[in-house]
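Example 910.
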Amino acid sequence: MAKKRLCLTVNGRAIEQEIEENLRLLDVLRDELGLTGSKEGCGIGECGACTVILDGKAVNSCLVLALSADGGVVETVEGLAAGDHLDPLQESFLDNHALQCGFCTPGMLMSAKALLKENPAPGVEEIKEAISGNLCRCTGYVQIVEAVKEAAQRLGGG
Amino acid sequence: MSVHDSWRVDAREKVTGQARFAADLHIPGQLIGKVWRSGQTHARIVSLDATEAKKIPGVVKIMLAGDMPAHTTWSTYPFLAQGRVLYQGDAVALVAAESEEAALAALAQMEAVYEALPPVLSLDEALEESAPILHNSYPDNRVANSHWPVRKGNIREGFEQSDLVLEREYRTSHVEHAYIEPEAVVVMTDWDGSLIIYGSTQNPFNTRRAVAAATGYPLNKVRVVQQAVGGSFGGKEESVGLLAGRASVLCLATGRPVKMTYSREESVIESSKRHPFRFRYKVGAKRDGRLMALQAELVDEGGAYNFQAQFMNWRACVHAAGVYHIPNVEIDVYAVHTNHVFGGAMRGYSSPQIIFAQESLMDELAAALGLEPLALRRLNFLREGDETITGQILHEPVNAEKVTLRALDLADYERKKEAYRRQDPDTRQVGGIGFATCFRGCGLGAEAPDATGAILSVQEDGSIVVRSSLTDMGQGLQTAHAQLVARELGVSPARIVSKPVDTSLVPEGGMTVASRGTYSGGKPILQAVARIKQILLHVAAQKLECSAGELAMANDCVFRREDPSQKLSFAEVASAAFWSGHSLSVTEWFQPGPLRWERETGQGEAFPSYTYSCVVAEVSVDRLTGKATVTKLVSVHDAGRVVHAGAASGQVYGGMAMGVGMALMEGLNFERGLVTSTNFDRYLIPTAADIPEAVFEFLPSDGNSGAAGAKSLGEATVEAVPAAVANALAAAGYRLRTLPALSESLLKRERG
Ligand code: FES
Ligand code: FES
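Predicted structure in complex with FE2/S2 (inorganic) cluster:
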């Protein structure tokens, strides 16, 4: 298979790489860049474990052909914290016990992050809606919704 | 909640993406392993041909059953099937290749010829006289050792003394664990030739057994290292053993590390499911509601292979009559083989199914007697000093009634029930409220020894490592264990590192099942803490020139109770102890006393302690579409003393969601034995939008046998939910005797 050049900004870092044409954005992140925070749970756009922010929008990176994102700006869970300084969403997930196995957590955080960027003061229903594409089998979502609400408040919204 | 209760040992790593799951590992030189599955319901293998597949560039190795170095099966499950395949997930060949693409291309080039054999497609078919025999050693299609009877009193007399006898049949479906992380392992050899398996496994010691079986290696040359596990709920057991065994033989055959990750489809096709049950209950009661007799046949579908039903059905026979006092009982539980994917452990084991049937029955009986559901239950609840159907006198506090009254109160049940009864039956949206009460035997009970171990080591700088023989698969067990240590030593949890299981480091401590992680798993930890504490206090007493009895430990210090200013930091004491030659590393083992069980009658001592739970559900049904929604769940659990409030709350909410899924949406679909709902587009689990308002309370209780007073919780949280939802639906006019209560079934009822 032919290789093509892919240019991306990932977590603020410019990336330029020759990749196989058929790679998904998720493959590039996990296999080429070693950013294994984004997970694969279904491969068909149903579980949200692979959610990243692409050009400001939450997307299922298992459904994005990497080359179609050429020139794009990608944010992954690895880019949320600034060094030791956690993002308020991450803090709030810790404080609200919003995770158990943690497999859905990166995707959940990125969906929530995208939501808060667009809507700094979301209501409970809006939060549920925003994360309804992210499956979690462990938590029953209650503490996750709480966490997002609290993060919004901490950020001065809500 | 105390400050410590939102703290979790692995949370920071999990919110930053650092936590490493098995599929995140990459070993230089690794090959990608794949499984070629039969895709057949029941067939004879006529021929398998890998000639073309071997020619694909990048393919390094293809193995058939004949190439396996040792055993082709583990327990009853085949690593590679030989001669015959019994369900679609059966593997017939393994591929190792340089890349995923090459491995997949090889699978596409494999050629097989099968000759279809008559299949068994349901538990009813399995029981037919003329049913095909699936395993020659079990000509009646019954799963080995899966029959567990209970005989108590005199069933004939019991029915004779009854004024009313009611017979009902209930059924449940195959439920998928749907952990969001599909199974994955990476296998490599160590420099001494032994194997190292990094995997997403619930029971690393069982995974080790599987690898030993597949490779012929002794157990001491197989090291299984658990990675962060992305949920399990009983599921990462058989399939992970098979996966690890297969990856190991590929690793040995190629001399290269091998990584194998299941796709969601493979995970659904091969991993075990919640056993579907068919319940036939016959209950007799006096006119006033006193239960006199219960006769029941519980049949569960074990699928193509099965090892779990023998254990699961034992638990089933103990819980088959619910949390009630019944003098005359005859119960038979057994499992059958079919050509479907195998049944296994899933959160609650057999209980969510049984409670659905048995608590539906209680509501139906109440209605037949003209009694309120609560009145019937209060008359029959087990109480302290009562004898269970399995002949055990309950000496510990029995809180069935207490949790029920509290839950009903919290749910405003009486008022709402009346309001629903007055609702206009012709409106499009109708509602109902219902509840279910249950108990759960804590830990393994008489099923198997509830023994387990732990290692606690305090380092010279005062930091601490805790290693349990039981696993954290997301439920937060490492945190609960660290919490116990922190509390007992009076140190901050930040000092403690709690490690996942590595089979080369901790004693084999049995399986992490039956909600025994804290209940039993906490015990060797507390024993170890007690020994370490003794040493530290002894050393501190010498330094402070007092007796150890005068000292206390809190706030990361050891101090004199009389004069707290006379103190030493925890780190100082640890260092002094180490440098004066004391051992600060302690291995402890908890061995419970033996429990008595008589198999023929099902009488004995089943469990030392029981968790009591009540769940109240409110539902709303759209009569036009048949869509049912759970609008509110209230649950109250007597789980003894809760160790970590944050983790415990997470268990309750998670259990509620799983219960809602089982009640309303989850059931695997098959077409002639082949699963058609193999991914989340067709197998739906609850999303954030499906979650009802959730309220819960723990009812603290003492006097039980658990570590630090903690009883089992993880499974108890899910168990009564489907039953409560079913009873709420019945209150809304929809008594469904088969789960899940899909809109199709409700519509059918609606249209008569
Ligand atoms: S892996 Fe992308 S949505 Fe599930
Ligand atoms: S925390 Fe396990 S899937 Fe969400």
